[in-house]
Each structure stands twice: as structure tokens, then as C-alpha cells.
Amino acid sequence: MALYVNTNISSLFSQRKMAGAINEMDVSFKRLSTGIRINSAVDDVAGLQIVNRLASQVLGLNQGNRNANDGISLTQSIEGAMEEVSTMLRRVRTLASQASNGTNSGSDRLALQEEVRALSAEVNRIATDTTFAKSKILDGSFSTTIQVGSDAMQVVSFNMKSVGGSAAVNSLTVNGGFTLSGIASVASEINNQGLTSLAAGISNISGVAIGVNDDFATKFRASSISISSTTNAQFVLAGVDSLIAVVNKKRAELGAVQNRFQSTVRNQSNTSENLSAAKSRIQDADFAAETAKLTKFQILQQASSSILLQANQRPQLALSLLN
């Protein structure tokens, strides 16, 4: 075998192998210190693209869930206000029933009338003043779209402008929203029965027949609702259930929307979990494998270092030939 001094092939080979072992150790050190297998594109070009795409979707789903939970809070706020409206309407019904009783005097009915007017004014105030994040939600103008998905147009929309399926017929926008008169304006459509029909028997009690103009819109206004006489109390008693039905109908719609939000959160939480698992399998470092790999290259680095020392000493054999 030839003996060279200027070019030590054995040394160069050992240097290359030791450099390779050190590079692999550096990669293992990086993965073990970060817990991530793909720290840069050089580690896995395709994997990096997939991981970033999955990460974006997971972030979108998690934000969508937060948005949906905000939507739940919104619907709960609206439904809570409408529950109070329903409670006050039931109280009006009780007072109308009490005023219809013949044992009450005129002054008794006037006292009852004061509470009915106060309750009616409070219904109007709730409709006018109830807000969520400074947006009025019961005045007939509110509509919203909640971004619940991770991608564009994955939304849930609802509004407080109407009750029931027909927005054109059951609109509350032009009648002040969920004010007393606004609720009364759609009562016959929701209940499928007008006040004239509901109060058809009143003339048998009061001696005054119901007129064609005696409808929900005229009898149920905060400024004019009256139980000061038996006839008026009977009108209110006959029609107030239809107003309660309007409120309950909208509450049912809000409940359905809230259930939809909750289903969305559950579904997207499951999807986010599975996407995170897929991302983990691609991105996260396997500590057992990386530790074994690090140990392997540490041994190779030490062995290469020892061999390099011996390879560097080989040219010294030429000195023995010169002697």
C-alpha cells in the first residue's frame, strides 16, 4: 500500500464521517430541545407544508368555537330578556282575569289598570333598551352572522326582525320590535286567529259586541291598553295568550339556534382534536427514537475522533523510512 504525506485519505475520510455524525447529533439536539421533528423546511419539505395547513385549520376551528360560544352568550342574553317579557305578559293576563271578575268595583279595576300600564311600559323599555355589546337586540333592527367554521362562509345567521318563517308577513321592524304593539302586530299571524274571533263571546258578558276595529293592534298598546272595565278586561284576557305565543315562538327559534351553536362547538372540538393528532404525528419529535439516534451518533462521533487521531499519525511512518 502506498504511503502519502501530502494527502492523507484516511484522515479526510474520518473527518467526513465525524462531521456527518456531528451534524446528525446537532439535528437530534435540536429536536430533543424543542420537542419538534420539523424545525425548518430542510427537515421535511412536504411535512412542513402539511403541518402548516393543519395548524391553520386547527386555529380556525378553535376561533370558530370561541365565536360560537359568543353566539351562545348572545342568544342567552336575548332569550333572558324575552323570558322577562313573557313573565310580564302572564302577569297582565292574571290582572285581566282579576279585573274581569264582577266583584271588583271601578276603583279596584283602576288600581289594577295602573299595574297593567306599568308592565306594558316596562315591556316597551326592555324592547328599546336591551343591548349586547352596545347593539340593540330587541328593537326590531338586529340581525347578525356568526363565523363558526375555519373557512369563509361557514356561518350561522339569525335575526330579531321577524317571528316565524315569513319575514314579510311577520316583520317586527316597522312596529318597534318586541314592544307591546310590535308583538301585537303579528299575534294573529302566529296564532292563526284574530282578536275578533277570540273575543267573539264578549258581547254576551258586557252587552257590547266586538267591532271590526277591535284587533290586537288597537287593544294592545302601552298607551291605551285597558282593563278598567269588564269589557276591556275581557278583550285583554282573550288576546294576551296570543301575545305570549309570539314571545314563546321567538324564544323557541332562539333555543334552536343556541342548540345549533352547541352542536357546532362539539363537532368542531372533535375535528380540532383529530387534526391536532394528525399534526402531532407529522411534526412532533419521537423522544425514544431521537434519544436512540443521538446515542448512536455520539458513539460514531467518538469512534471517528479516535480513528481520525490514528489516521493523522500514519504519515509519521515516512520518517522511519528517512532514518
Give the topology.
Blueprint (H helix, E strand, L loop, with lengths): L8 H26 L10 H56 L5 H24 L1 E2 L2 E2 L6 E5 L7 E5 L20 H6 L1 H5 L3 H4 L4 H4 L9 H4 L10 H54 L3 H27 L3 H6 L1
Antiparallel strand pairs: 1-2, 3-4
Explain this structure to me?
This is Flagellin. Belongs to the bacterial flagellin family. GO terms for molecular function: structural molecule activity. Keywords: Bacterial flagellum, Cell projection, Cilium, Flagellum, Secreted. By secondary structure, this protein is mainly alpha-helical. The chain folds into two domains: 51-281, Up-down Bundle (f41 fragment of flagellin, N-terminal domain), CATH 1.20.1330; 287-318. Helix content is 67%, strand content 4%. It has helices spanning 9-34, 45-100, 106-129, 180-185, 187-191, 195-198, 203-206, 216-219, 230-283, 287-313, 317-322, and strands at residues 131-132, 135-136, 143-147, 155-159. Strands 1-2 form a two-stranded antiparallel ribbon. Strands 3-4 form a two-stranded antiparallel sheet. Helix 2 runs antiparallel to helix 9 (230-283). It is rod-shaped. The model has no long low-confidence stretch (mean pLDDT 89).
